[in-house]
Amino acid sequence: NNRFIGNNGTSVSGVGIHFVSVANITSINETGRSSSTTGINVSAGGNHSFTNPTGISSTHYGLGIGATSGNNFTGGVFMSNSGFSIYIGSGGGGATASNNTFNHTLLKTNVTWILTLSGDMQNRFQNTTFDQPTAGSITLLPRITITNGSRINTSTINVTNNRSYVNSTLYSFLNVSGI
């Protein structure tokens, strides 16, 4: 079991923190920042436990996960100004990013909160706040399971003008109660 506590990784041209090809990581209070790519990247491994992770990217992904399954993220904050708060993508050779769980998560973006590719299934979110910093936020309390090939963006969940709109016709899994 690999244990990481309270580390900060910052990169101007690369990934802030990158966990690759390992299993059973326990990560507590880790912060990854990137000006040009991904704040925190998790790939090729699995069954990790992340408590209070923070991933920040100016242009890419706050959190990128690929070819990894069975991970738990609790109390995470993932932000991207012009990219994706969370990108869930498959790896090479048909490996998927599936069966990952997110609890008490804050997602901040001006564009897209979550993007999943077509092979990535059963990624679950519970008590998730979708925050558009210039407009407002909405918290979906019940657990939602994101279907593969989904793009949850500021058009899917619109929180502008002191109103909230969730397009559950496009993604029926969003048809839950929010506050």
Description of the molecule:
By secondary structure, this protein is mainly beta. It is 0% helix and 54% strand. It contains no helices and 20 strands. Strands 1, 2, 4, 5, 7, 8, 10, 11, 13, 15, 16 and 17 form a twelve-stranded mixed beta sheet that branches. A hairpin with a 3-residue loop joins strand 15 and strand 16. The model has no long low-confidence stretch (mean pLDDT 90).
By DSSP (H or I, 4+ residues per run), the number of helices equals: 0
- Estimated helix fraction: under 10%
- Which overall shape is indicated by the principal axes computed on the Cα atoms? globular
Query: Mind summarizing the main beta sheet?
Result: 12 strands, mixed
Task: Write a short abstract of this structure.
By secondary structure, this protein is an all-beta fold. The protein is built from no helices and 20 strands.
Helix-strand blueprint:
Elements: E1 2-5, E2 8-11, E3 17-20, E4 25-28, E5 31-34, E6 38-46, E7 49-51, E8 54-57, E9 61-69, E10 72-74, E11 77-80, E12 84-89, E13 101-109, E14 112-116, E15 123-132, E16 136-140, E17 144-146, E18 151-153, E19 157-158, E20 165-166
Parallel strand pairs: 1-4, 2-5, 3-6, 4-7, 5-8, 6-9, 7-10, 8-11, 9-12, 10-13, 11-13, 12-14, 13-15
Antiparallel strand pairs: 14-18, 15-16, 15-17, 19-20
